[in-house]
Amino acid sequence: MSKGPGLEPGPEPGPEPGPEPQPLRHGDPAEPGPGAPGGLFAWLRGRCLGRGAAVDPARDTFGAMTGLYGAIQPADSVSLSTRTHGAVFNLEYSPDGSVLTVACEQTEVLLFDPISSKHIKTLSEAHEDCVNNIRFLDNRLFATCSDDTTIALWDLRKLNTKVCTLHGHTSWVKNIEYDTNTRLLVTSGFDGNVIIWDTNRCTEDGCPHKKFFHTRFLMRMRLTPDCSKMLISTSSGYLLILHGLDLNKSLEVGSYPILRARRTTSSSDITSSGSSGPRAVGSPCHQNNSGPPSEKTLSRPSQREGGSPRNSLEVLTPEVPGERDRGNCITSLQLHPKGWATLLRCSSNTDDQEEGAPMRPVSPRCSLRLTHCIEEANVGRGYIKELCFSPDGRMISSPHGFGIRLLGFDAHCSELVDCLPREASPLREIRSLYSHNDVVLTTKFSPTHCQIASGCLSGRVSLYQPKF
């Protein structure tokens, strides 16, 4: 009978009595070391995936929080007059979970205390048009973007005026990212531009900025958690990945090397699911460079030794089951909090096609590995539904009609790496929650508490918390 590392020897006689195993002490590693079954490479791979307590000390904490979602119920809600702020387009918690911000259709930004559900403040004229997205730079400073083509910076300690207003886009600005390493703000809009803003040199007149990238039919742009890659989704059904991201280098059309896409079959290429509307697709956000670069690429001086050049562009066509004969618009794009996967919401171009967006031609080439998917009815056609991962990446919250659905990779809300299927599998519905009287457009997990927020077309914000 084998004994664990923390057990005293039992009464069973052994052929050769050896030294007694010592109980684990505080600070000892909780995982087997390089000599464990599987060998050194299995141990190193587990560390790279963030599997050890020394690598991810919050794993057990988030595991306990995930278990609480089984008891989650609609809690408090904030319902204000739609004549004031209109639909809720985006929700964002501060990194410490102390403030919940709401981006509204009618130029307003609302701030709430998510614990007491009390309204803190309304920024009644935050912009001159719809507020689309909010991003916290730290626990005090946050940015908003709008259809008025501007980005605004705000400080929670002084909300009567903006810190500054950023001008540079020529069309609706749809999302904001932030590189905490370089303190560079990254925005994208329907003008097809990705613009970099240097917040290190921000003044009342704005921030120095430069156009970083341009593509037609741009929908959403995201940075991976380590800011090593940029992903861009388009309304024409393509997913673009810039590998070896260098935000300090401006990209002109034709100046970036192109990586050839290929079909991935290796189980080590960890990819993730998507919650969809109508369909969900999973795609890798850390491909093995998805094929060799071209000869022209290899001759470039920007080629890094032993790897692909900086800002190498890969153009992908996500696989959507049953939709190979027509184009798809990738309306929502989210990344796994550990960078393991990409979560896409795809809808048929015949349903939600942007005006002028071409149908994607049928192509047998696909370098994405689909791992999970689910189909949903396209309720509230014409509005983009924003879904999200839980802080530990085990669950997905997806707008679903007049409520939200909590989805998992399996029935036990396991880590993706613990239940990675050989073939595409359906996402498992863990729980459905309905507390709105209109179509839900956005949902967000709190980064610090077991709480979910959702916002709908009629302007109501609902909170969900465990009840026993």
Spans of 5+ residues with little confidence (pLDDT < 50)? Answer: 1-16, 18-31, 260-306, 350-366
Derived structural class:
mainly beta
Q: Strand-residue fraction?
A: 25-35%
Please count the beta strands (DSSP E, at least 2 residues each). Answer: 30
Shape descriptor: globular
List keywords for this structure.
single chain; 468 residues; mainly beta; four-stranded antiparallel sheet; 30 strands; globular; disordered N terminus
How would you sum up this structure, described in words?
The strands form 8 sheets. Strands 14-15-16-19-17 form a 5-stranded mixed β-sheet, with no helix packed on it. A 4-stranded antiparallel β-sheet has the order 1-30-29-28, with no helix packed on it. The relative contact order is 0.13. The longest helix is centred in the N-terminal third of the chain and has 10 residues, at 39-48. It is 7% helix and 35% strand. The two termini are 40 Å apart. The protein has 468 residues and is mainly beta. It has helices at residues 39-48, 59-68, 82-85, 295-298, 349-352, and strands at 72-79, 88-93, 100-104, 109-113, 118-123, 131-136, 141-146, 150-155, 164-167, 173-179, 184-189, 193-198, 209-214, 218-223, 230-234, 239-243, 258-259, 279-283, 312-316, 328-335, 342-348, 372-373, 388-389, 395-400, 403-408, 425-426, 428-434, 440-445, 452-456, 460-466. The chain contains 5 helices and 30 strands.
Gist of the model:
With 468 residues, the protein is mainly beta. Helices cover 7% and strands 35% of the residues. The protein is built from five helices and 30 strands.
